[in-house]
Amino acid sequence: MQRIAFLFGAASLVLTLAATAGAEQPPSPAPSTPSAPDGRERVTEPCAEGSAAAATPAERTAREHQKHDARLAKLSRLEQIAKQTKNDALLASVARIRDKENARHERALLRLTKVEG
User: Fold this and answer.
1) Dist CA 76 CA 71 (whole Å)
2) 4-16 pLDDT per residue, tens
3) For residue 112, which of 49, 72, 62, 71 has the smallest C-alpha distance?
4) What is the residue extent of each domain of the chain?
5) Which residues fall within 8 angstroms of residue 52, CB to CB, at 6 or more apart?
6) I need a surface site. Which of 1, 14, 52, 88 has the fewest CB within 10 A?
7) pLDDT tens profile 40-67
8) Non-local CB neighbours of 68 within 8 Å, separated by 6+ positions
């Protein structure tokens, strides 16, 4: 019975793929240029509305604070779990990661204030 269900599922997948193969392809992405020193390609199209580059300085700062708060909340939850399970290695990792996150947040705020001012 399981084999029949598997074959039926596989057949429906093949039919779906065959039906979509002739469908119109989405437009290709914007042209890219390898401008990064590590060889990654960067898209050269204008920024979409709502993106970080198009946001006002106040919006970028608010996003940074939201990101920082979300990361600290996750770390706090990990810290609670580590204390409940008496996992000292996890507690040490959480403390180390929290220090790194605070340093990253301070650098981001400095960068954002330089852009604003």
Assistant:
1) 9
2) 555 556 555 555 5
3) 62
4) 56-116
5) 60, 63
6) 1
7) 766 555 555 556 566 788 999 999 999 9
8) 101, 105, 108
